[in-house]
Amino acid sequence: MKSNQVVWFEIYVQDMQRAKTFYEAVFESQLTQIKSEHMPENMEYYVFPMENNKYGTAGALVKMDGCQIGTSGTIVYFGCEDCAIESNRAVQNGGKIVHEKFSIGENGFIALINDTEGNMIGLHSMQ
């Protein structure tokens, strides 16, 4: 294996505009719509900002008929300076805190939140 095994993530949503607004506000960044003639017509796809050769992986919000969303299963963790800040932004933008920021020892801190679509995501920081 020459690279990290996780190379992409997708968070499925029911209301793209609501979800896009939530993620842009919580992480203070802009998502970019991707369109392709090869994508299904019923698919909306917005990617998170990314830079090649930087730490972490990239991903997208996806809306597509027939794809379920939920609060269990795989959890995507977003890197933050201080995950308590993003937790508070989540609440201010219609999300919910599932578990307040807590220590994971020498590996920093995490918090768990629900987005506006009901998906649970993780926040990770070293402070």
Topology at a glance:
Layout: E1 8-12, H1 16-27, E2 32-33, E3 43-47, E4 58-64, E5 77-79, H2 83-92, E6 96-103, E7 109-114, E8 120-125
Parallel strand pairs: 1-4, 5-8
Antiparallel strand pairs: 2-3, 3-4, 6-7, 7-8
- So what's the CATH class? Alpha Beta
Parts with pLDDT < 50 across at least 5 consecutive residues = none
CATH architecture: Roll
The total count of helices amounts to: 2
Q: What is the SS-derived class? A: alpha/beta
Please compute the radius of gyration using only Cα atoms: 15 Å
Mean pLDDT: 90
What does this structure look like?
The protein is built from two helices and eight strands. With 127 residues, it is an alpha/beta fold. It has a single domain (8-125), classed as Roll (2,3-Dihydroxybiphenyl 1,2-Dioxygenase, domain 1). The radius of gyration is 15 Å and the shape is globular. It has a four-stranded mixed sheet with strand order 1-4-3-2, with helices on one face. It has a four-stranded mixed sheet with strand order 5-8-7-6, with helices on one face. The chain has helices at residues 16-27, 83-92; strands at 8-12, 32-33, 43-47, 58-64, 77-79, 96-103, 109-114, 120-125. Strand 7 and strand 8 (120-125) form a beta hairpin.
